Amino acid sequence: MSADIVIGQTPNGEAIRIDIKELLATRLLVQGNSGSGKSHLLRRLLEESASIVQQVVIDPEGDFVSLAEEFGHVVIDGAAYGEAEIVRLGARIRQHRASVVLALDELEIDQQMKCAAQFLNAMFDAPREQWYPALVVVDEAQMFAPAAAGEVSEEARRISLGAMTNLMCRGRKRGLAGVIATQRLAKLAKNVAAEASNFLMGRTFLDIDMVRAADLLGMERRQAEQIRDLARGQFLGLGPAIARRPVAVNIGSVRTGAKSVTPGLAPLPTASTEDMRELLHADLHVEPERPEFPRPAPRPRLDVEELAASIATSDSVADAPPRPERPEPEPEENRAAMVEILNAMAQEEDCTFQSSTTLFQDFTIRCRMKGISIRGLDATMFRRGFAAALAGIEDPEDERWLDLLNLAKHVPDDALATFYVIARAAMDGKPCPDDMELARIYGTSSPRRVQRLLDYLEKDGLIVVRTDFSGKRSVGLPDLGVTTAPVEA
């Protein structure tokens, strides 16, 4: 099967092709001002390669949902799912190799960034056996990888920029080929743009964007002016998947259309000036009719003493049965009930792949349903209690765990559950869980991230990892004087 597609033609009529196999290894950056034909180019690329490679489209404006009718893409409405569901969808897309469009047009910009980040991270963290090749097309990439802080929250910017950086910098080895499109190169984070080796530059007018585009195309700065003169739908292409020298490309036609349309001209009204004046000023002083409702008679005014007396002697109050008082649980009962809820949550499948915010909200709801007071409990205390429950430490108040809990004060919250699991195995003299189990506890599908976590804990002096000549690994905790049983690494 050929992996070349025709993206368009030169002004002389020669076909310009894109090598999809090469594109998967080298990534693509598209730039063009609004109206330059940038979305049309992406649509042409997606349509021509739909039968060749899996496609994932991050669509902030909902313009690419029409691909579903013609090419069978699955449309995922980002506004209809919660965080945990988006993560599961991202994982299943890698597993089943489905071509999808993540439509984010119903969300505010902050929520778009968070939803896209969770979705991209889930695909990035897929296990190695699911690293199938896929084109990941991100339209309006400057929204998801901004060069500077703007009106969005710092949290949204941080997680979105991290996901885009992973896609462009480290996605290639996982089969993810980023195709990012932006209106302004100056607004796109440089470490994201710099990872692309193929470029299609459309019309732009600002000097800073023209200079950056010319630099990426290997053109002299005095030649940057020609970028301003490009026609709609015309781009300058360069890269190993396109051409070795800058080449002008007129993008070919497409079969599907966008939801938005370019505004056109419509005939002006033919009314005369006097008629138009009459239409604008007719009944301008007349208030719109409103339905009239009968007003109740004014109540007699009472002073404070009379009002208090009337309330005290009211028959309805006197005859009303007293409200049953719910007994306040004892602190020990409260703590035991919370531990029971934490242990139940820790047994649920995929609980570690949900965010701590979602888990904390779920926990507080369960406590309120059981009448448990959560006064004085904050998110940090919850994360540490949940980490203990994941490790099977059912009662943290037990003296057996006292030294471990004191040592764990030096462990970051996100690494605590993994640390507890290793420590408990060492205290029980059992083998250390394998990397896949530790990855599940850590909330990832990537064993390599677990390796980096173990390296961090070892550099911090909290654990010592030892591998003997037979290849068996054991993990010791020097502060506790315990070590896990050796097991094949």
Automatic annotation (TrEMBL):
UniProt cross-references to Pfam families, sorted A to Z: DUF87
Domain AAA+ ATPase: 24-214
Organism of provenance: Novosphingobium mathurense
UniProt-annotated stretches for the region Disordered: 312-332
InterPro entries hit by this protein: AAA+_ATPase, ATPase_Atu1862_pred, HerA-like, HerA_central, P-loop_NTPase
SUPFAM superfamilies: P-loop containing nucleoside triphosphate hydrolases (SSF52540)
Basic and acidic residues bias spans: 322-332
This protein's name: AAA+ ATPase domain-containing protein
Coiled-coil blocks: none
